[in-house]
Write a structure and sequence with these properties.
CATH topology of the largest domain: Ribosomal Protein S5, domain 2
CATH class of the largest domain: Alpha Beta
Radius of gyration: 19 Å
Helix content: 25-40%
Bound molecules: (R)-mevalonate
Order of helices and strands: EEEHHEHHHEEEEHHHHEEHEE
Strand content: 25-35%
Largest sheet: 8 strands, mixed
Amino acid sequence: MTGAIGAASLPLSARAPGKCIVFGEHAVVHGGPELLFAVDLTTQLFLRPGARAQLNGDPAAPERHPYFRAALAQPWAPRTPLEVQAVSRIPRGAGLGSSAAFCAAFAAGGSALGGGVDRAGLAQRSFDIERTAQGVGSPGDTSAAVAGGFLTVNAPGSGPTLWSVRDGPRTWDVRRVDDPGWVWIVAHSGIPRATGDAVRSVSARLRAPDGPELLEQFARVAREGIAAMAAGDRAAVGARMAENQQLLREVGVSHPRLEALLDAVAPNVDGAKLTGAGAGGSIVALPRPGAEVEAVRRLARAGGLPFVVRPARDGAELVGPPA
Ligand code: MEV
């Protein structure tokens, strides 16, 4: 994970990983359990003093870029005008945590300028930026960007508590769980989507009379999936991924392009489902050992942008001054 963020001065650089949700997206916003991991694709920010705040050379970004605007509005944000350069390997709008990585990297850099912060404080600050920008959501994505590795949210007993994140009267407990050491594939459909819109539409769907029953199904599937992963049972994890995908279809966030990718990769995997907010974005697949290359080929032939991903060991961190 790496420890507290220490004090630093400008210029500085900070980076944070993206994430991949295995179980429980959307339901986590309503208190359900979630399992996710930080992926080895990162966003790196370079912070320098400037005449006025800007992002990637755009002086309108403090008004126009929702996450940059939200970051600058935080009570702990540096008052010095910052020129920020962002370099990211995480596709944007792909459900892979590009915005969470931006928030966590900014929170790490901005907190260093304010004298430093511990990991729990960094998780809270990163979530506060994302929550301000999106207006809705859970702290799962930003916690993965801060913690690295595998973690659960709202899953009592799954592992040691890392921290609790607050949103007004609500609290989410974030726990560390073991990496089973498997190889994962994510594939971007190329259809961009907005997390906030998807979260609002699922929330509306869950207000229907069968909403509580659906939420209970999401929770059961995630709990069983978390237990199956702890037991190293790939077949059971795959079966729960299929059940989770069916529930995500029922709440309206699958997409024909995601379904095409799931169909294409089915012969080579133990399990696959959409990952993140859906309605576009990406799928995550657990390829059978030895079938990784064929799975990637099939996904590319079906029009996806596949990546083989491993869990990122480290969460958000300072990486020294820019060259
Ligand atoms: C988005 O990556 C995950 C959602 O559950 C939203 C959230 O938890 O903030 C859809």
